[in-house]
Amino acid sequence: MNKNLGTKAILILVVLLGCAYGIVGIPHGGLKQSILNRIHLGLDLKGGTHLVLQVHVEEAINSATDRDMQSLNTALATYGATATKLDPKHPETITISGATPANQSDVRSVLTGSEYQSLYSVSSTGNGNFTMTMNQTSIRDLEQRTLDTSIETIRARVDALGVSEPQIEQYNLGDNEILVQLPGIDDAGHVEDIIQSTAKLEIHPVVSGPYSTEADATASGPIPPDAELLKGTAGNGGGTAYYILKRAAIVEGTDFRDAQPSTDENGRPDITFTLTTDAGDRFYKYTDANKGTGSMAIVLENTIREVAGIEGAIREQGRISGGGISQEYAQSLSMMLRTGSLPASISYLETRTVGPSLGAESIHAGVVAAIAGMLAVMVFMLVYYKGAGINADLALILNLVILLGFMGFFSATLTLPGIAGVILTIGMGVDSNVLIFERIREELRLGKTAAIAVQDGFAHAWITIIDTHVTTVVSALILLVFGSGPVKGFALTLIFGLLANIFTAVFVSRTIFDWSLSKKGRDAVLSI
Fold first, then answer.
1. Neighbour-count burial for 328-338, b at 16+ CB within 10 Å, e otherwise
2. What are the residues whose beta carbons fall under 8 Å from the beta carbon of 381, sequence distance 6 or more?
């Protein structure tokens, strides 16, 4: 018995020291700072910026069908058929016209080829016309990829700002929404500018231009469905000019592998960029086929920055230059291109800033509530269960240490609901001790000795404790998986606390009882 008690005591001591290390780590900068280095404070405790964003995923669908439309026109040129998008309200639909009775089967073979078969459903509308509609599964997949890419891009941009412990995730309370919480950042306007800028750099083939006005651009006829009119500047820093460009880009935002600020031969700021391998091959194919005859436009955020003739084949590297680029703009733009272009634009549904003083008040109120609740529970246990109450109080203190140790080891973020989780854990810990102590009292009333009563009391209460904790952990896991923001903080704290409580209420408390009884001998009497 004594040997087993010694082993159990060493195990408890190791756990206690390990959790103390989890809370404080290697102390530096004072005890408070050491704790904050391990357990981070959430937005509601530290202060910062809270944003809810809406991603316009329909733009990604439009962009995808634009690229497919361009590819189809290349493949259909042999048969004299063309692909267009006639209804702006339905960007998922492509209309094919111009097929003759002699080549309709060949045209359909192109439309149902392996490149499009899994994405589109094809139907004939008569007179050599077909309709391709992106199926719902493909649309949902593309929307989810757009949302996931937006989250990763925003996270990369926020990381570039040096924000500590940001929370960026899908917001499950709405469709295609993202939750962004940035503790310690109170300039919401600057954050919005960095996040919202799509910095979408695209290179488009030029159909015609420049034109002095929009009317000049459409004087000879309407703009083709597969083209668009964009505004830019005339060469050498001249006035406003308009160009008609192919709607589908040769390369676009996600095709850029790197971008860095630099200077041109005259010492003016500009940006150099490098394309991915696939995009570089695509760019080389286009420029090689159009060298000496075609031109292309560099479009940034729907504005033409530069129009250049194609003098030779270009594979992977290019440059954005112009008199209007400042050093600050070059730094900001290169960072956004480097971290990735947003696949679709976003809008802000909610913007809220929490001041640090309000966070400090929340911490104070939460700590006071936790301490007051714990002291009240400890006094109750001492009064109602007498000597056994000391056992429960020791287990309760160790429970709190283990809980905070878990949070420190996992670098968890403590939120205001998380503090509520700590208080709830204290209540659950007391509940477990009450179950055990009441079972021991019942065994003593049956005339059993103290040692047997403790043994049977723990054995009978064990199943009930496991049942209650498992069901509560499952509920907390559901909150952790499907919740967001502070709800996750509450769930995480509750799960850590429940796991700690199983150890302290059953193992630690039983060890204390066994140690106490071993000192009193065979005729020991429990104070309970």
1. eebebbbbbbb
2. 388, 389, 392, 393, 396, 430, 433
In Å, what is the CA distance from 469 to each residue of 284, 373, 440, 509?
62, 21, 20, 17
The pLDDT of residue 523: 66
- CA atoms of 37 and 403, how far apart (whole Å): 16
pLDDT of 322 reads: 59
CA–CA dist 273, 261 (Å, integer): 9
19-65 pLDDT tens trace: 888 888 877 767 777 877 788 777 777 778 888 889 888 888 888 88
**What sign has the CA pseudo-torsion 399, 403, 408, 414?**
negative
- Range 192-211 average pLDDT: 76
**Contact criterion met (CB below 8 Å) for 132 and 121:** yes
Q: Which of 36, 262, 259 is nearest to 160 (CA)?
A: 259
φ/ψ of residue 493, rounded to 5 = -60, -40
Tell me which of 50-64, 130-144, 304-318, 474-488 is least confident. 304-318
| Two structure tokens written together for 464 | 């009930």
Tell me if 248 sits within 8 A of 226, measured CB to CB: yes
- The strand ranges marked E within 301-412 are 303-309, 317-320, 346-354
Six token digits for residue 381: 């246990």
Coil, strand or helix at 236: coil
pTM: 0.58
pLDDT digit string, tens, across residues 99-121: 888 888 888 888 888 778 888 99
Q: 467 CB contacts (<8 Å, ≥6 apart)?
A: none
- pLDDT tens for 473-509 read 999 899 888 876 677 778 888 898 888 988 888 888 8
Nearest to 432 by CA among 474, 372, 381: 381
The DSSP call for residue 505 is I
Show the tokens assigned to 314.
Answer: 């270009």
Selection from 430, 440, 309 nearest residue 373 by Cα: 430
* Tens-digit pLDDT profile for residues 204-235: 889 888 888 888 888 888 888 788 899 886 55
Q: How far is the C-alpha of 492 from the C-alpha of 403, rounded, in Å?
A: 10
Q: How crowded is the C-beta side of 288, counted as CA atoms within 13 Å?
A: 8
DSSP string, 260-325: EEEE-TTS-EEEEEEE-HHHHHHHHHHHHHHTTT-EEEEEETTEEEEEEE--S---SEEEE--TT-
